[in-house]
Amino acid sequence: MALALWPFRLIVLVAIIAAIAGLAGAVVRYPILAIVGVLVFLIYALMLAFILVVRPAQSFRRRADLRGDQTYCFSESGVSMTFASGESRVNWSYFIGLLETKDLYVLRHPLKQLGSIIPKRAFPDEAAESAFRRLAQQIRKGMRPAA
Rounded to the nearest 5°, which phi and psi values hold at 87? Predict the structure, then answer.
C-alpha cells in the first residue's frame, strides 16, 4: 500500500540502487563502492522499517481512540466518523484519494499523508462495498459525488 506514495517509491528505489551498487562493487573488487553501497542500502532499509513499522506502532500506542471501536458512515454528502474520543463529519471533497489493498481501503487525507483505514471486512455485504466503491471512484477523479 505504501508503494502507491511517491516518497516510499523513492526510498525503495534508492535502496535497490544501493544494493546493486554494493553487489557490483563486490563483484568487480572495488571495495569503496561495495562498502558505500551496502551502507546506503542498510540506512535506507532501516529508514523504511522505521517509517512503516516502528512509527505507526508508536502512534497506535499513544492514541487510545485508535484502539477503541470506530464507526464510519458513508453518504452522498460525506463521511461520518465516530471514535472513543468523539465524532467528526467530513465532506468527500476533503479526501485526496483512495488506496486499496487486498484487505482494506485507505481514504487519503491532504495533510502529512494521513489516511482513514477502512477494512473490507467492515462491509456487511458486496452491495455495501460496491456503494462505497462508487463514491470512492469519484474521489479518485477529484470530483465531489453527485447527489
Answer: -135, 165
